[in-house]
């Protein structure tokens, strides 16, 4: 099954939105294969956002993502990479559709609450940057023998 990487950025954590965001992702039907609260080092931030290294906002982006804890997740589901990006919404929260995470909670492009991988290649790269193999779990959600 396809996997993607999502990360609630420091602004989302500071605004106590972890529960609300995870609830939306679970309600959508995605399966959580891995999750953790962590600090992003400067080195990891620069590697993660290396495609933006030449952009004028790169320094600010690295400073912001390392400014406080993030909540990193691996989600699993059919077509999860593209569908999670739809749930996340457009990059600029001021243009993101209502009903999306950025549309409902984001304030500015620099503080847009959450990151989501944008392709199969980025998803694989980002999952392996943020998670060890042992932190991405393979388990069955449909084992309901215990419900009577
Ligand atoms: P992300 O990588 O964080 O999921 O966001 P994205 O794909 O929607 O957008 P991307 O183009 O990859 O940009 C990465 C992050 O850089 C910040 N940004 N700031 N000041 C600016 O003009 C500007 N443009 C982009 C945003 O926080 C964006 O999420
Ligand atoms: Mg991106």
> Largest beta sheet, briefly?
4 strands, antiparallel
Q: How many strands appear in the DSSP assignment?
A: 4
Radius of gyration: 15 Å
Low-confidence stretches: none
Order of helices and strands: EHHEHHEHHEH
Strand order of the largest sheet: 2-3-1-4
Instruction: Tell me the count of domains.
Output: 1
CATH superfamily: Nucleoside diphosphate kinase-like domain
- The CATH architecture classification is 2-Layer Sandwich
What is the mean pLDDT? 97
Name the ligand types. ribavirin triphosphate, magnesium ion
CATH class: Alpha Beta
CATH fold category name: Alpha-Beta Plaits
- Distance, first to last CA: 29 Å
Which term fits the overall shape?
Answer: globular
Fraction in beta strands: 15-25%
Query: In percent, how helical is the residue content?
Result: 25-40%
Structural class: alpha+beta
Count of separate DSSP helical elements: 7
Keywords: ATP-binding, Cytoplasm, Kinase, Magnesium, Metal-binding, Nucleotide metabolism, Nucleotide-binding, Phosphoprotein, Transferase
Subunit structure: Homotetramer.
Protein name: Nucleoside diphosphate kinase
Cofactor: Mg(2+)
């Amino acid at each position: 099954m396809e996997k993607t990487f999502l990360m609630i950025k420091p602004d989302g954590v500071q605004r106590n939105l972890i529960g609300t965001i995870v609830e939306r992702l679970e309600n959508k039907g995605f399966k959580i294969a891995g999750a953790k609260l962590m600090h992003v080092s400067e080195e990891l931030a620069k590697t993660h956002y290396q495609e933006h290294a030449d952009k004028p906002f790169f320094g600010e982006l690295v400073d912001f993502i390392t400014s406080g804890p993030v909540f990193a997740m691996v989600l699993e589901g059919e077509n999860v990479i593209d569908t999670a990006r739809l749930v996340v919404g457009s990059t600029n929260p001021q243009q993101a559709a209502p009903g999306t995470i950025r549309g409902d909670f984001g304030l500015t492009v620099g503080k847009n609450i959450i990151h989501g991988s944008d392709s199969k290649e980025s998803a694989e790269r980002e999952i392996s940057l943020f998670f060890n193999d042992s932190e991405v779990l393979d388990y069955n959600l449909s084992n309901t023998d215990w419900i009577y």
